[in-house]
Design a protein that fits this description.
Number of helices: 6
CATH architecture of the largest domain: Sandwich
CATH class of the largest domain: Mainly Beta
Strand content: 25-35%
Length: 193
């Protein structure tokens, strides 16, 4: 599954704008985030759909959270801790294995992030490098079957209503059953200082 061009261009503008706001060169931001300047250049030009791990690194390096980096505008919370989201969701962040649609993206400073995750990869051989990130993660299966593969554990098949809570730093892969996609509520808390 590939990112639609408008979503890539939206992210490109957000990253570049925030980088300039912080008076950082592409090289300085890339070094801070821990990846190549050429990767950042591709993101800022809308030529690369970054993985979840790259987005987390970018958000941290820009001094923001992932939801704020992906926020498309609109009303923000003035005080209090409640957001009701109606209508079109924020743009999904997609890669070859999944699509992540942020929920309540306009709420700033929250302790956890929430997304609807759609997993489309069905074969571990096609997944590529396994995910690993400094988060505490929770997946609740909404539809389809989730095949959760992780280092040190037997693969677990989860059906709608099932959930898994895990350390995101543990290498893992989320797969759908062949011939279907799997949708989950994905909630995580950033463990990085």
């Amino acid at each position: 599954m590939k990112t639609e061009q408008p979503d890539r261009l939206f992210l490109a503008k957000r990253v570049k704008s925030r980088r300039i706001e912080l008076s950082l060169s592409q090289e300085a931001l890339a070094a801070r985030a821990g990846f190549a300047r050429s990767t950042l250049s591709k993101i800022e030009n809308g030529n690369l759909s970054p993985t979840f791990e790259l987005l987390l690194k970018l958000a941290r390096s820009l001094g923001t959270d992932l939801a704020e980096l992906l926020h498309t505008g609109g009303p923000s919370a003035l005080t209090g801790r409640m957001i009701v989201t109606r209508g079109a969701p924020a743009p999904a962040v997609t890669d070859d294995n999944s699509a992540l649609t942020p929920l309540a993206a306009q709420l700033r400073g929250r302790k956890f992030q929430s997304y609807v995750a759609e997993f489309t990869c069905t074969e571990i051989a096609d997944f590529g490098p396994w995910n690993s990130h400094a988060t505490e993660d929770f997946l609740y299966v909404l539809s389809g079957d989730l095949v959760f593969v992780s280092e040190g554990y037997e693969p677990a098949v989860l059906s709608p209503g099932d959930s898994v809570h895990f350390d995101g730093a543990m290498p893992h892969a989320c797969l759908a059953r062949p011939g279907q996609s799997c949708r989950c509520l994905y909630v995580f808390a950033d463990k990085a200082g």
